[in-house]
Amino acid sequence: MTVDGSGERVDLAELAARLDEAAGAAIAIPQLAAVAGIDVDAAYAVQAALLDRRLARGERLVGLKMGLTSRAKMAQVGVEEVIWGRLTDAMWVPDGGTVDPGLHIHPRVEPEVAFLLDRLPAPREPVGDFTDAVRAVAPALELIDSRYTNFTFSLPDVVADNASAARFAIGAWQPVPAGLENLGVLLEVDGRVVQTGSTAAILGDPRRALDEGVRLAGRHGVRMRAGWVFLAGAATAAVPLRPGAHIRAVVERLGAVSLRAE
Ligand code: OOG
Ligand code: MG
């Protein structure tokens, strides 16, 4: 697969291979978008090629994640655009499960809200009736791990890198609670609160993240399906995942989800 970004022909599959190998070896690589001359659209094509490599290994696409839907996250990484990425079954850690930080480059964790999707409208239409679109809601933790040196990237770089997706855990699913747009969120490390926020930090209302996801993924021909998981984006900045740490995210009225680092 090639594009003519700046007159040069760029092999998008080759860029995907570099990112995939960096993730597999847990060794950071330099940013590649500027050198390769790829824009955001080409970066989403790299992301799709990265998913193809996972599917070829037998992984299954189970949903989508949003990224940079809160000011705290945008400020942390210096990229001011909402992005999205793909989630596979291999990234899913059971609630209370263990992850090995040594399999990642510089893993960070962040508290999120997850939706279990139901009937979604066509990509060009607003989600409208959220109760039709979403079967259940849960507290979630995302473990992100940029494949780039120093966790530093441009917008096309982070898009190509599947929005830094690495692992995620989801707590117990439950009915959509009243006041979803303003629930308190805590991130705890070893029982100590290290970040506090609100679901309001996620585009003013995490439901808006679903609208954005339907729209943005739709632009690239991806239509969300019933049964998929959707991560609305972190409500606070992410914190480094240290070996041995016990991580817990608590969302008011939704309960908690946890994972442990080996
Ligand atoms: C990009 C991914 C952002 C979120 O929830 O905002 C993200 C990054 O911070 O590396 O997952
Ligand atoms: Mg996230």
Automatic annotation (TrEMBL):
Pfam family, one: FAA_hydrolase
Source organism superkingdom: Bacteria
Keywords, in A-Z order: Lyase
Catalytic EC class: lyase
A single GO molecular function term of this UniProt record: 2-oxopent-4-enoate hydratase activity
Keyword Lyase on entry: yes
UniProt xrefs under InterPro entries: Fumarylacetoacetase-like_C, Fumarylacetoacetase_C_sf, Hydratase-Decarb/MhpD_sf
Gene Ontology CC annotations of this record: cytoplasm
The keyword Lyase is annotated on this UniProt entry: yes
Start and end residues of each Fumarylacetoacetase-like C-terminal domain: 80-257
EC number: 4.1.1.77
This protein's name: 2-oxo-3-hexenedioate decarboxylase
